[in-house]
Structure formats: structure tokens, C-alpha cells
UniProtKB/TrEMBL annotation:
<dbReference type="GO" id="GO:0005737">
    <property type="term" value="C:cytoplasm"/>
</dbReference>
<comment type="similarity">
    <text>Belongs to the FAIM1 family.</text>
</comment>
<keyword id="KW-0053">Apoptosis</keyword>
<dbReference type="InterPro" id="IPR010695">
    <property type="entry name" value="FAIM1"/>
</dbReference>
<dbReference type="GO" id="GO:1902042">
    <property type="term" value="P:negative regulation of extrinsic apoptotic signaling pathway via death domain receptors"/>
</dbReference>
<dbReference type="Pfam" id="PF06905">
    <property type="entry name" value="FAIM1"/>
</dbReference>
<dbReference type="InterPro" id="IPR038513">
    <property type="entry name" value="FAIM1_dom_sf"/>
</dbReference>
<protein>
    <recommendedName>
        <fullName>Fas apoptotic inhibitory molecule 1</fullName>
    </recommendedName>
</protein>
<comment type="function">
    <text>Plays a role as an inducible effector molecule that mediates Fas resistance produced by surface Ig engagement in B cells.</text>
</comment>
<dbReference type="GO" id="GO:0006915">
    <property type="term" value="P:apoptotic process"/>
</dbReference>
<keyword id="KW-0963">Cytoplasm</keyword>
Amino acid sequence: VEKMTDLVAVWEVALSDGVHKIEFEHGTTSGKRVVYVDGKEQIRKEWMFKLVGKETFTVGAAKTKAAINIDAVSGFAYEYTLDIDGKSLKKYMENRSKTTNTWILSLDGTVCRVVLEKDTMDVWCNGKKLETAGEFVEDGTETHFSVGAHDCYIKAVSSGKRKEGIIHTLIVDDREIPEAVE
């Protein structure tokens, strides 16, 4: 295995199917560009005469669009920025915190990362979209699913405040799980 001597940037991107690691190698003499997603090579270009530009690829199960922008700052210094779904990583993650809820818990000795996509009500656990069953209850809705032998549901209740909207709570084996901050 050759050593990644030209590694210039590493990003962690939290998507519904997991947290993905994006690594970028840029040889500023050869113009070499290599993009790795979760340790797997996605793009390799050995000789590029143009040292600035952009590399586009996809990340995760949903094939989310990603792009690394290479800009010259001054002389031989370069700046690398990552865009996800056409937005800067920071903007994307801010928006994502409004559209998803994430819980991290340990079940049967395994760390589980449960993600709710609020717009579709899809539920993901450790990279897999789960089968769910929705049900109306007195004060809101419950989205039922199971993880292993555990009965789980996400309860959606109106906060009664317009700004806060709906509050989602994960219940596993009758226990409330606190939301994770990614």
C-alpha cells in the first residue's frame, strides 16, 4: 500500500446511512488528484496540468452529490472546500439538522445510529433503511420499527409552538433515548 503523501484534506460527512470520511490527495507538482470515500478510491487522475478546478463524485447509499473545489490562494498555496448537494459542508449540515434527527445508542453491545428523515419519515439504522409502520395516536403519531429484537418507535408530537414545530422522540424498549448532536 503506497503511503498517502499528498493527502491535503479530510472531511467527515454525516448522512442518513452513516458518517462518511472523504480524503483528498493533491500532488501540486504532478497535478495528481485522488478522492477516497470511506477508504475506497473514487477518482484518480495522475497528471493534470490545471492545478485548480473541481472533482465531483457521490457519497453514501443515497448517492449524494459531492464536489471538492480546488482554488489557488496565493503562489503555490491551495484551498480545498467540500460541497454536498450543491451547498458548502457547513450550510449542508446546518440544513440537515433541521430536516433530520439522529440518536446514537448501544443495543446488544452494538452502537446503533438511528436517523429520522423528517420530510419522508424514513428511518435509517447503521446505513440501512428500515421497514416502518406509522400509526396515529391521541397526541400525535408513532413510527414503529425494530432493531434486532428491540421494539422501537419515534413519537411525533406538536410542540404547540410554531417556531419549534414537531418534537420527535425515540423510544426503545419503553425507554426514551436522548438525541445526539453531530
